[in-house]
Amino acid sequence: MVVISAYTPSVIAQTPTPDVNFEEEEIEIIVIDEILNQPVYAPFRREATVRDSTRPVYVINREQIEAQGARTVQEALKYLPGILSDGTAGGQLGALSSQFIRGSNSAQVLILLDGRPINDVGFFGGFDLSEFTTDNIERIELLPGGGSTLYGSDAIGGVINIITRAPSDQPEVTVRAAAGSFGLNEQAIQTRGRSGGIGWTVGYTRTEAENDFPFEIDRINLEDDRENADVLYNNLNFKLEGQLGDRNTLTFSALYLTKDFGVAGGVPIPDSIGEFNSLTPQARQYTDEVLLDLTREL
After folding, report:
1. DSSP-based three-state secondary structure for 35
2. CB neighbours (10 Å) of residue 1?
3. Residue 264 shares a structural domain with residue 152
4. CATH code of residue 137
5. Structural domain of 153
6. Burial status of residue 139 (CB atoms within 10 A of its CB: 0-12, 13-18, 19 or more)
7. Does a structural domain hold residue 5?
8. What stretches of 69-178 show up as alpha helix (H) in DSSP?
9. How far apart are CA 226 and CA 149, in angstroms?
10. Whether residue 263 sits in one domain with residue 192
11. Coil, helix or strand at residue 162
């Protein structure tokens, strides 16, 4: 707790005079050290804390991800100011993510994974954050505004840094399953720990949803369910960390991301005899990403 002393005038007058009395009033400001001391990488290109940053930086930690029930990185970013993570493709599970930060487009936002850039040239310079499920995510950092001084022209709009979970001091296993409306079902298992000088993190997440939302068009007296908008995720993560000495660590990370997503078309329309013809194509989007990293810290 920080206590700041302030002086408040007890007499209001149009012309101040030396005789005006002041009384001291204590203003209490509670500063939560846990927030200010959160680790953050993006503003410095090295490990530091939020307290050290001279620029605005938002951190979504593991506790917040679980509290809001975010299944993907795209969903976790949804409640931060200044960013439109849903883009123009809609907000349903599996929809393409576009990172619009303060008027910038996706190609101008740098995406980092554990501090390494992963922007995809094939996606107009951006990266589809709807591919990332959150079971293996420790925290997400958002640095809004230009970051070209540290990261070059790819960071004109800002920087998003995704930090994966590290091996824990004590072995642990987490199993999660969920089911919901519109055909949602999820299964996930994560294990991490240390034994001697070896640390590990291994996990698998499967997420599926039908996304068959109902809709109505009163003008043509039509009620139906949307078709061909389902999504299936399969994410596999692996991290192996070895202590080669007191100040020497070798880490190998592998992340395999797949997403099979149906592209819903237009709604059915009546033809000349009143029959409804579906305009829903059977188009599919399938993406897979293999991200590998080998790091030696001295």
Report:
1. helix
2. 6
3. no
4. 2.170.130.10
5. 28-164
6. buried
7. no
8. 73-76, 148-151
9. 46
10. yes
11. strand
Q: How far apart are CA 76 and CA 68, in angstroms?
A: 8
Q: Is residue 176 assigned to a domain?
A: yes
| Distance from chain centroid for Cα 201 | 20
Residue finishing a domain among 126, 144, 164? 164
* Residues 49 and 177 both lie in one domain: no
Helix (H), strand (E), coil (C) string for 263-277: CCCCCCEECCCCCEE
Does residue 4 fall inside a structural domain? no
The candidate with the shortest Cα–Cα distance to 99, out of 174, 158, 172, is 158
Q: Which helix (H) or strand (E) holds 292?
A: strand 284-297
Residues recorded for the chain: 298
Neighbours of 201 (CB within 10 A): 21
Question: For residue 194, what are its two tokens?
Answer: 């240390």
For residues 164 and 255, give the distance between their C-alpha atoms in angstroms, rounded to a whole number. 10
User: For 81, which DSSP code?
Assistant: T
1 assigned to some structural domain: no
Question: pLDDT tens digits, the chain, 298 residues: what are they?
Answer: 333 333 333 333 444 555 555 566 665 555 567 778 888 888 887 888 888 887 888 899 999 999 988 889 988 988 888 787 765 556 678 877 878 887 777 788 889 999 889 887 555 677 888 888 999 999 999 988 877 888 887 888 888 999 999 999 999 999 999 998 888 999 999 999 999 889 999 999 999 999 888 878 787 777 878 788 889 999 999 999 998 887 889 999 999 999 998 877 665 566 555 565 555 557 888 888 899 999 998 8
- Per the structure, the count of domains in the chain is 2
Q: Are residues 119 and 145 in the same domain?
A: yes
The per-residue pLDDT for 97 is 80
- Residues 157 and 182 grouped into a single domain: no
Residue in the block written with tokens 């991490």? 192
36: phi then psi, degrees, rounded to nearest 5: -70, -25
Query: Where a domain ends, among 125, 147, 164?
Result: 164
Residue 254's Cα: distance from chain center in Å?
19
